[in-house]
Amino acid sequence: MDDKISSTIKTEFSRHSWRLVAVIAVVLIIQAALLYFILFTLPTANSSSVTIIVLTLASVSLVVVGFMTYLMMDALEARVEQQAFAQIKDRLLELQTAVKVGQALQKMASTLRATRSFEQVMDQALEVCSLLFEESGIPGRSLVGAVFLYEADQLKPVANRRLMPGDAQKNLEGVRGVVAEALNNAEAAMTNDPRHDPELSRFAAFNNCPYVICIPLRAGFQIFGAMVIGSATAVDFDKKQLELFNSVADLAVIALQNAQLYQNLDREKQRIISADEDARKELARDLHDGPTQTIAAIAMRLNFIRTLLTRDPDQAIAELEKAEELAKQTSKEIRGMLFTLRPLVLETQGLSKALETVIQKLRETDGLNVRMVGGNYGDMLSERAQTVIFPIIEEALGNARKYAKANLIEVRMWHEDSLFVARVQDDGIGFDAEEVNKGYSSRGSLGLLNMQERAERIDGSLRLESKPGKGTTVTLVVPLDKHRGKARLRKF
Fold this sequence. Notes:
By secondary structure, the protein is an alpha+beta fold. The protein folds into 3 domains: 2-104; 120-259, Beta-Lactamase; 349-492, Heat Shock Protein 90. Helix content is 63%, strand content 15%. The chain contains 13 helices and 10 strands. The strands form 2 sheets. The protein has a 5-stranded antiparallel beta sheet with strand order 2-1-5-4-3, sandwiched between helices. A hairpin with a 2-residue loop joins strand 7 (409-416) and strand 8 (419-426). Helix 1 runs antiparallel to helix 2, helix 3 (118-135) packs antiparallel against helix 6 (239-311) and helix 9 packs parallel to helix 10 (383-404). The longest helix is centred in the middle third of the chain and has 73 residues, at 239-311. 23% of the residues are buried.
């Protein structure tokens, strides 16, 4: 705009400069003609008279030229001032509108930071688009628009400007017309005939718009929805407007991503709380069914022993031995529970030793035939990976203990290419794995779902295989390029 003002001033001065040159040239021609007439047509006049006449004419000519120059410069000043002020006024109007747009964008960004409601941000996005219309000299109230977000396979309106009440409840499929073009190409698309668009024609407000533009709301390859903008006033959307609309869409997408991240975080928080609550309940049940009952039995037996001390000392000694055995069993159970809550051996000696402790406990308390092969491969993993893998294998062993009725349970670990693989396999009764997977996806409880979520935390994958009468196999695969530890593989 500054270049435009400068160009205008230069043009006006140049035009008036040529006019001044023309006037001076005319005056000089007149003076030359008069001098020629005096010198060659009035030979009888003496030289003094001729000189006086020439000087008088020259003086008059200069006065006339000066006066005309003054008038022309005065007119030039007024005209240049008028045009310059007109250009500056237009520039100020543009700057004021740009300031409003900037303030609206800032407000939108502030709304984005202050709220978790993406509906408010979408409404603010349409408000900014309305100000962009005003910047182009179009009344902001001419804007007809809506923001559609995906809900299942439909695009649902979450904010709108001047849609009919019935239109505000309608969804888009996004598979035809200008909306499909924008979504498929991941860039803005425009139509000058929304009345005949296969999807927008269902909206009465868009049918009255000469032009409608659809801007996809996307981040990378993920598309959240679309912003559809139309104008009740005839207007051609230029490149500048499209860039501003895209900027608004980018801010809207940031709000959507923030809302999505918050929802995921809140969902994960609730899952952890639920898992923690389930773990507490399970621990309470185990304490009630195990050590609590045993301690109560020990207390009763001690009370019985007290009555036997004077009446039958030999039987009292036998009962004391039984009480001692119960106390030892209770101590083992409590240590096992403490180990489950915080396996210190995992922190100090690694995955292999921690699993050996679990396996030894299963052998002693449940009499199970459990063996481990390739335990040293666990040292290949980082401490974080070992901390995540341990409860997965422990959970798999716990499930085998409770349900498999197996003669043999095997824990095997090995290294394959750039992958660490751990497998827990039993020869028990098995079950229908497909049905169990469906049930876990709907229940969202501890167990298999918890194991899968833990595996995903270290970029791993978990596979469950089982058939009735064919045993069960749980296989965990973890990429070593992301979770390789510093310790070297020990050789047996």
